[in-house]
Design a protein that fits this description.
61% helix; 161 residues; mainly alpha
């Protein structure tokens, strides 16, 4: 019988052990559906349980971010977004998960969506922690908000009909 912790560990080793550029390792349905993202030994508060719970949560989120990045590199943007949002569900304040979402939108050519995701991250960090996004996050969208040029005007009079 295989347990969720075993499945999470096996999947993480496959994802993290694969080389960049290799076909992405599929994310198990249990991860996207939150089954493997559930709490280890709910209701237990022994120190060793709390540490193991946090270790598993960090492993899950990091692996989901890597999986999302690999999916995006393969042009599989839907799967990339699913993995990135699963990471964000596991830890809503993790800026690196927000960065992956912004980057996937940019990779797909969706500038407006990337800016919207950045703005949500910026507001969340400000509201919850009173901090700004890191320079690393800001660089992703740094050159995207340029003032639009006004349309060229003709030099002559405007004809009236």
């Amino acid at each position: 019988m295989q347990v969720d912790v075993q499945e999470l560990g096996d999947w993480s080793r496959r994802v993290l052990g694969s080389r960049p550029g290799a076909p992405p390792v599929e994310v198990p349905t249990g991860v996207l559906g939150g089954v493997l993202a559930g709490e280890l030994l709910p209701g237990w508060y022994d120190d060793w349980v709390l540490l193991e719970r946090e270790r598993l949560r960090q492993l899950l989120v990091h692996t989901l971010e890597v999986a999302a990045t690999r999916y995006a590199a393969s042009g599989r943007y839907t799967e990339a977004m699913q993995a990135a949002y699963a990471a964000l569900r596991a830890e809503p304040l993790r800026e690196s998960a927000h960065r992956v979402i912004v980057q996937v939108h940019l990779d797909e050519g969706n500038v407006a969506e990337a800016l919207r995701a950045f703005d949500r991250c910026r507001a969340l960090l400000a509201d919850e922690l009173g901090v700004r996004p890191t320079d690393q996050m800001c660089r992703l969208v740094g050159g995207l908000r340029r003032p639009l040029r006004e349309p060229a005007r003709s030099a002559g009079p405007v004809p009236t009909g």
